[in-house]
Amino acid sequence: MSGVSDLKKAYRLLRKALRSRKAVQRVRRHLATRAPHPEGHYKVAVYFADGAVNMYQMRQWYRPLAELQKLWPVVVLARNAGGAEKLLEEDAPPVAFVPTVRDLERFISRQDIRVVLYVNQNTRNFQMFRYGRRWHVFINHGESDKMYMTTNQYKAYDYAFVAGQAARDRLNRTLWDYDVDSSTIEIGRPQADHYSGILPYTPDERTVVLYAPTWEGDRPSAHYGSIATHGETLVGALLATGRHRVIYRPHPRSGVIDDEYGAAHRRIVAAIAEANQADAAARHIFDDGPELGWQLSAADVAIVDISAMVYDRLASGKPLMITRPMDERTSIDTGGYLSDCEWLTADAAADIVSEVDRVRADEQAIAKLRMWVQHYFGDTTPGVATAKFHAAVERLMGEWDEWRQREIGAVAHDEDDDDEEAKDDEL
Question: Closest by alpha carbon to 184, among 203, 199, 171?
Answer without folding.
Answer: 171
